[in-house]
Design goal:
- This protein has 11 helices and 13 strands.
- With about 350 residues, it is of the alpha/beta class.
- The protein has one domain: Alpha-Beta Barrel (TIM Barrel), CATH 3.20.20.70.
- The strands form 3 sheets. An 8-stranded parallel barrel has the order 3-4-7-8-9-10-12-13, surrounded by 4 helices. It has a 3-stranded antiparallel β-sheet with strand order 5-6-11, with no helix packed on it.
- Strand 9, helix 7 (about 220-230) and strand 10 form a beta-alpha-beta unit.
- The radius of gyration is 19 Å and the shape is globular.
Length: about 350
């Protein structure tokens, strides 16, 4: 069966990236994806902000923007799945072409611009998930919104009841001005209003972890400010990081100078370094989720050792297919066994000790 999935992944790469993405989602929903037991390895089980994860490997936001296939993704072996980014109103995003494969670099550049069908269908599909697994919702703001913070509050309110957790995405490089929400004054306003909106939601529907997803392109001052504000306003974790606007000099693909956010293998060192800096700034006071260039058991382990309690991936699936999830879990369990570790909790942040 693995060879069949590998062949399907190869066939998808013959299509333009956006068509291939739609076909992959369709295939997963049709039950054509691989199946792997998420809880196969006891030493990979962990807790994240009160959520019981069968393993620490999550599907990053961006793949399933409209919450079309969370159950199918969980069947691939993911410990948790994050759907979105969803905006209050439907949004077409930026003009095509807007996804570029950098195959020689095992990378992608995208400038999608939060294309999605809006909150109404997203919330309806999220309600159908039931208790099948950990499914988070990633919320954002419409490009033409007069009050972007209000968009986050609206999204948070609509998904709260059904989502396992909620992430506010302030780090996409493809909505003009959005990353400005990471600046200290703007972030204080956003987090303050989110904290106010959270109290009645928790009273009505119970507690949910609330995460913030940040960019990798931050200086030390911004890292310190974001870390302190996250603690001050009661966030439960930070997701580090989104795509980068940097273009590392080793890129060789023809599309390397396209505008947009770079993800995949070249993002690994950039995102892991910013993860390490957040871990140092927070000193264990807040969990971190590491994203960017995870493509193997070894890269997942490196994120954990740098301070992540869990990791997410996306771009690697484009090149390796959904069977990669089971392979990473198998490799990660073997690496932990080789280090004599009984639980991943023991190695979180071990590089910083």
């Amino acid at each position: 069966m693995g060879n069949l999935h590998d062949a399907a992944t190869g066939a998808l790469r013959l299509l333009d990236p956006e068509t291939a993405h739609s076909a992959a989602l369709w295939g997963l929903r049709a039950g054509l994806g691989p199946r792997a037991r998420a809880g196969k390895f006891p030493r990979l089980r962990t807790k994240l902000c009160g959520l019981d994860l069968p393993n620490p490997l999550g599907m990053a936001a961006g793949f399933d923007k409209n919450c079309a296939a969370p159950a199918a993704l969980l069947r691939c072996g993911f410990g948790f799945v994050e759907c979105g980014t969803v905006t209050p109103r439907p949004q077409l995003g930026n003009p095509r072409p807007r996804i570029f494969r950098l195959a020689e670099d095992r990378a992608i550049i995208n400038r999608l611009g939060f294309n999605n069908a809006g909150l109404d269908p997203f919330a309806e599909r999220l309600a159908l998930c039931g208790n099948r697994g950990i499914v988070g919702a990633n919320v954002g703001a419409n490009k033409d919104s007069a009050d972007r913070v209000a968009d986050y509050l609206l999204g948070m309110g609509r998904v709260w009841r059904r989502a396992s957790y909620v992430t506010a995405n302030v780090s996409s490089p493809n909505t003009p001005g959005l990353r400005g929400l990471q600046e200290k004054t703007a972030l204080e306003d956003l987090l303050g209003r989110m904290r106010e909106a959270r109290a009645p939601l928790e009273a009505a529907h119970g507690g949910r972890p609330l995460f913030l997803k940040v960019a990798p392109d931050l200086d030390d001052t911004a890292v310190g400010d974001i870390a302190e504000l996250a603690l001050a306003y009661g966030l439960d974790a930070l997701i580090v990081s989104n795509t980068t606007l940097q273009r590392p000099p080793q890129l060789t693909s023809d599309s390397r100078n396209e505008a947009g956010g770079l993800s995949g293998q070249p993002l690994f060192h950039i995102s892991t370094e910013i993860l390490r800096r957040f871990a140092q700034a927070l000193g264990g006071r807040l969990p971190l989720i590491g994203v960017g260039g995870v493509e193997s058991g070894a890269t997942a382990l490196a994120k954990l050792k740098a301070g992540a309690s869990a990791v997410q991936l996306y771009t690697a699936l484009i090149y390796s297919g959904p069977g990669l999830v089971a392979r990473i879990l198998d490799d990660l369990d073997g690496l932990l066994a080789a280090e004599g570790v009984d639980s991943i909790v023991e190695i979180v942040g071990s590089d910083l000790r």
